Amino acid sequence: MGSMSTAPMVVVDMPGRLIGFDRDSDAIPNALADDRLTMVQQDFRFIKKQLQLLEIHEVDGILADL
Q: Which of 39, 48, 58, 60 is most buried (most C-beta within 10 Å)?
């Protein structure tokens, strides 16, 4: 989870929440320490289920690094 995903939050410096998906267990500890960032160690194909578990009912955008 690198600068590509956190850049929108830093540049705009506005409230929001970023849910990061990464299958690599080594990437999770390297994520930025930010209260707006929630890391999920799974493939983002499970995004719908994870958003339900996090009680997130709508999103403003999705950034996918394929």
A: 39
